[in-house]
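Internal ticket #5521
Category: modeling
Description: The requester needs a full-assembly model to guide mutagenesis choices. All entity lines are attached below as received. Residue total reported by intake: 426.
Assigned to: D.W.
Attached entities:
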Amino acid sequence: MSSDWPLFEVFIRSRSGLEHKHVGSVHAADARMAIEHARDVYTRRQEGVSLWVVRSADIVASDPEEADALFEPARDKVYRHPTFYAIPEEVKNL
Amino acid sequence: MYTQALDTHGKEPLPAGAGSSAALAQRFQERIDVEEKIEPKSWMPDAYRQTLIRQISQHAHSEIVGMLPEGNWITRAPTLRRKAVLIAKVQDEGGHGMYLYSAAETLGIARAEMIEQLLSGAARYSSIFNYPTLTWADVGAIGWLVDGAAIMNQIPICRCSYGPYARAMVRICKEESFHQRQGFEIMLTLAQGSAAQRAMAQDALQRWWWPSIMMFGPSDADSKHTAQSMRWKIKRFSNDELRQKFIDITVPQAQFLGLTIPDPALRWDEAAQHYLIGPIDWNEFHAVLAGHGPCNHERLEARRAAHEAGRWVREAAAAHAAKERSRQPQAA
């Protein structure tokens, strides 16, 4: 069995002013080829104005099994949201 | 994230208090029941993983093999417009194969292994692509009927419990719509053309109707995987439910074209509010699936030849990349 070219994750900026968003992955021998493959696979209908490709092996991700512990510190801090504060209705522009 | 590499990191540590696999399996099913998406690094039962690998890779193979019957007509498309459209459609099918292989890889199988399974004949692909495209009207019938049936099958998979598969399907379904419409347009043009063109359209419908009906798979009574796939929300409707939906929307379209569906038993059932069809020839379905369709051999040979012919390109690109890396050790 032949081995695969390295895997790259693909991110697209769909139009100017928006952030790049993950759309999928491609195999490619190098970064330049990854950009070309990403264009052919993910932007056949003008889905983007800019592409990022990142070697999948270089991405570090959080562990879903540890999500509870990782995100727990924010859970009891509802006072970070504006709706936490009761303001009388007649007060405007707050 | 869509990676196999990441997937291998996440599986080892078990959450405190959920040590037994029964507890994990129960929590997994609860997540599915509340429509939470399962992502590559989430814990999942091995059977769920294997079912998805099989289904997504077969789906990907179908897209790749599906390029062949239509590719057969690219050089002979009747006009430049038709040719440009057909090239774009076949390119889309290739792209769909890529989205799906990429989704399957997140479950821990290598792309090369899936390709190997296809080329060795171990993996299945949709039996519809083992029928030949004898005339230009077949390109129309494939777009209209085969892509129509595929859309009917695929739209519910956009809500599949496995995130990467669902997201790939959303992208695919958006693109398939053009495939079906261009096919219907070809049929409409032929149906409104000369007597010979109408006959060609009728002949294509004659040959593609039943294979399209069979694309929904065995009837519910004989479907092995349906119940578990429904519980896991990989599948949302049964084969027969989807088949009926397809028949109900397609019969009026054939009537609009002025073409006759090759089923003397076909009738509208007022009480059921459905079109009822005659018996399906399941022997044909199983024979084609078992490798005895008109083009099984030819399709696999074409894929193998393409894979072999491309080998030097893959190797040269890998060698070039290795050389570039050795010249610039700092570069990515």
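Resolution: model delivered.
Comment from assignee: The radius of gyration of chain A is 21 Å.
Ticket closed.
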